[in-house]
Amino acid sequence: MVVPGSQHIEDKMYNPPAELQRDAHVPDFNSYLALYRKSLENPEGFWKEVADEFFWKKPATGPMLQYNFDMTKGNIYVKCMEGAKTNMCYNVLDRNVKERNLGEQVAYYWEGNSPDHHMAITYRQLLSQVCRCANVLKQMGVKKGDRVSIYLPMIPELVYTMLACARIGAVHSIVFAGFSSDSLCERIMDAQSRILVTADGVYRGEKLINLKQITDEALEKCREKASSTVTKCLVVKHHALRAKGGAACNKLQTPWDSECDVWWDEAMRDAPEECEPEWLDAEDPLFILYTSGSTGKPKGVLHTVAGYLLYTSLTFKYVFDHHHDDVYWCTADIGWITGHSYITYGPLANGATSVLFEGIPVHPHVGRFWEIIEKYKVTKFYTAPTAIRLLMKYGREPLQKYDLSSLRILGTVGEPINPEAWHWYYDVVGRGKCPVVDTFWQTETVNVLLCFVLANGKHLATFPFFGVEPTILNEHGEELEGEAEGYLVFRRPWPGIMRTVYRNQERFENTYFRKFPGFYVTGDGCRRDKDGYYWITGRIDDMLNVSGHLMSTAEVEAALTEHSAVAEAAVVSRPHKVKGECLYCFVTLKDHREFTHTLVEELKRLVREKIGPIATPDFIQNAPALPKTRSGKIMRRILRQVARNEKDLGDLSTLADPKVVEILFSQRCEAA
Ligand code: WTA
């Protein structure tokens, strides 16, 4: 997908290499169309065939999909394979080891933050670790339906824990280990988790992060706000064991509460390697994952077992044209949906071999990604535009030291990719030989619109995945035919769509279904061209996308107004060379408070503490007043223009006090 205004540059077709095409699951556009039509015309037969690859303890009694998308006709719901019983963990591990003879195949090459730390984990070893962890959780009192919060870096134990939850029917709620203690506390409280799994500490690049300390602060905050539901905290000795040597090791003080805290290695030592999976209903919850909501309070997106299994496994197979000899690497963090679907569940369901990377792209040197691709002979590589833009800055030289000839397919996700980054990815990383699959999706949807590797030729625009029926509506909810631009919505569900917002069905319905009854509303704008390709044009609500991380203006504003000097705050996005978008904040101070450099630093620190480093504002501007309508609504459009220094303001007649705009322009920040 592409940034608005630049489509015309990229209205060009690219053809994949013949050898890729020969063996592909979807060898050409007509095969894509045939499969796509089948998926819409006969969803029952289409999804049944997918389900037949997996193990069902009891077959379904209901249809493959049942739903209501129309609020005027009752509650919104989606159900897949009602009556069936299965287990996700059994399907992604036991089935591969026992039925498909993949026990000795590597499931993950784990590569640590430091190149000295690495290990290979086979499917058999993974199964055994997962079963032991499942037994540890059971011993701690975790039962089917209980929530387990996981606050871990990208280490094998993260995968063990999530699959252990899936095995015993516990619902995992993974919180990205870059979030602050406030964010962690909020997510623990909303999920009412019984157990928290974390690690002592972790290096991200050069920086040592004391995860256990953040965890303790989060639990303390939960206790202050309400009685905490967390009874035990399981702590992986990651830093102390793996990052041995050097004085740095001694820098970390791990706070310890012997009532609550349990060391992972001690608990795992005696745990049995056998654990019977819990046979779950198809629609039992698999996990909750929090995503930003426009009110500022994160939404617990809930996914269920059977539908998510079918959809992640099928999307992985087709999006990356998976073959058994591939080595696949997705650089996302499992703390985000991309990691859930395309590091853990999708690849494992296909018996794939993946790289699991703990580190960052520029440590210990800026060629780290390319070094890893050479080391493991990675064939399929999936990353985000922000990472590409970051690495582009260092030019071609860091790549030229490594052999990247193993690469076959490149993928991108998370935000619109700008043509410059796309070309660098295609020409420099892929040497013009690897199709780039741009995948558009959301925490709520799993992969929905994408460039099929071989099925279509315009690399920045997409077609719907099987079973997905997009359409474009105008402001009045009327469907637009042919070439059109408007709201991207979906007319019917597919197995992997979210089921609800955890403990808040009302919010689920209001957020996604109220605006246009009968449709799931994505919140993104979209254009359909004359050939039927979809081009995402970006968010059309109050959400920001910083380095591929979605956040709401409201949550940053709430953090800023917690400062005693701030009366009011408004946050908008401003384009950024690497991050895509960055945060530009306007603050109105209380009477007699002064806008100083120290205050700006305090505010930045506050946002980091409240949300996490990803939300750190790049710009904070003094705003003696904000542009408001007569009814008091902040006009963000104007603030965006001030942030971007766009002087052509159009109609200002709805403003209560147009003078405000001049003042804001005179005080705008040029540089961060
Ligand atoms: C944006 C991440 C353009 C979009 C998987 C969406 C994209 C939001 C793309 C979801 C893409 C994601 N092109 N925009 N390929 N992928 N987006 O929930 O605005 O973290 O609504 O899921 O990211 O972000 P989320």
Automatic annotation (TrEMBL):
Pfam families: ACAS_N, AMP-binding, AMP-binding_C
Residues in Acetyl-coenzyme A synthetase N-terminal domain copies: 32-92
Keywords from the named record: ATP-binding, Ligase, Lipid metabolism, Nucleotide-binding
Record-linked Gene3D superfamilies: 3.30.300.30, N-terminal domain of ligase-like (3.40.50.12780)
GO MF annotation, one: propionate-CoA ligase activity
Statement: the UniProt record of this protein carries the keyword Lipid metabolism: yes
Residues covered by the AMP-binding enzyme C-terminal domain: 555-633
Reactions it catalyzes: propanoate + ATP + CoA = propanoyl-CoA + AMP + diphosphate; acetate + ATP + CoA = acetyl-CoA + AMP + diphosphate
E.C. no: 6.2.1.1
GO annotation (BP), single: lipid metabolic process
Record-annotated AMP-dependent synthetase/ligase domain positions: 103-500
Family: Belongs to the ATP-dependent AMP-binding enzyme family.
Quaternary context: Monomer. Interacts with TFEB. Interacts with the 'Thr-172' phosphorylated form of PRKAA2. Interacts with CREBBP.
NCBIfam families: Ac_CoA_lig_AcsA (TIGR02188), PRK00174.1 (NF001208)
Protein name, entry field: Acetyl-coenzyme A synthetase
Organism: Myripristis murdjan (pinecone soldierfish)
Lineage: Eukaryota, Metazoa, Chordata, Craniata, Vertebrata
Gene behind this protein: acss2l
